[in-house]
Amino acid sequence: MFKRTFIPAKAGAIWGLRAVVDTLFPPGCWADEEAMGMGGLSEKVRREIGVLAAQNYCRRCGLTVGPFARNDWRNRCHRCGQRNAGVKRTARVGTFSEPLITLVHRLKFGRSWEVAEVLAPFLHHAIEQVATESGVGVDYLVPVSLHWTRRAQRGFNQAEELARKVAVLGGWQVRCALRRVRRTAEQARIDTPTRRAENLKDAFVCRKDAWRGALADKHLWLIDDVSTTGATLRAAAMAIVKLPKEMRPASLNAAVVCVTDHGSPPAEAEVVG
What does the DSSP 8-state code read for residue 57? Predict the structure, then answer.
């Protein structure tokens, strides 16, 4: 098999070239180019993701906690004050580390839509686990929206791709209830949680069907790829909270592939939220 090393895309021309290469020379494992195992991942990568998914984390904020800490969503962990995503529960696959970094970058910047299907079983399991533990349902998966200009530039919304693949596995519904009305600066270029929150202020609004009661008394799960400070999730959640009381959901939760479990993301990583 033709082998190549994945380099994060920097421009549209490179994205197009990579799409041609992927077609002519399909990759092995999406994360490390080893021989492909089940579901597009080598056994080694699957084990590494399993280790990340097995970490104990707070079901409210999504941050890692000690192995013996209670992870009941009703109890705030000692780190909850570091991240306020505006949701009641958070499900995650793992921390923002390898091999999840490579997989998210392939999906987000490499235009490799197939990676959404590779990640979907892990995200589906995370949602089911938290939903079962807390006794809450899953009525709608709500992908965090992109501004139309960024979606046109990227060609798709990675959060929407993830939501659709996860929905198939869970027998759930996807509802694109949010619209991004303001093109914001890239979150990765903003160095503090406060400025990140300011950057996203009033960036989202609910679509008309939400104002007609489509979300009323439903259990919603916001879907995104990466949460760094929780600012993007919080801004999206606040748009839903602004609905009149009789139109609000029964619960508002979040599910992401990765949580950045430190003060700021690596300089080279363009991550959301």
Answer: B
Per-residue pLDDT, 18: 53
Q: Can you tell me the distance from the alpha carbon of 115 to that of 258, in angstroms, rounded to the nearest whole number?
A: 14
Closest CA to 8 of 110, 97, 100: 110
> By three-state DSSP, how is residue 92 classified?
strand
pLDDT digits (tens, 9 = 90+) for 197-227: 666 777 899 999 999 999 999 999 999 999 9
Percent of the chain surpassing pLDDT 70: 76
Q: Provide the whole-model pTM.
A: 0.81
- Largest Cα separation within the chain, whole Å, is 57
Reported as type and span, the H/E element at residue 224 is: strand 219-227
Residue 269, helix vs strand vs coil: coil
pLDDT (tens digit per residue) in 173-191:
999 999 998 776 565 555 5
Q: Buried b vs exposed e over 149-186: b needs ≥16 C-beta within 10 Å?
A: eeeeeeeebbbbbbbbbbbeebebebbbbbbbeeebee
The sign of the torsion formed by the CA atoms of 98, 41, 127, 155 equals positive
In angstroms, the CA 45 to CA 30 distance is 9
Say how far apart CA 138 and CA 91 lie, in whole Å. Answer: 12
My answer on whether omega of the bond before 99 falls inside 30° of 0, hence cis, is: yes
What are the tokens at 253? 């939760």
Dihedrals phi, psi of 83, to nearest 5 degrees: -150, 120
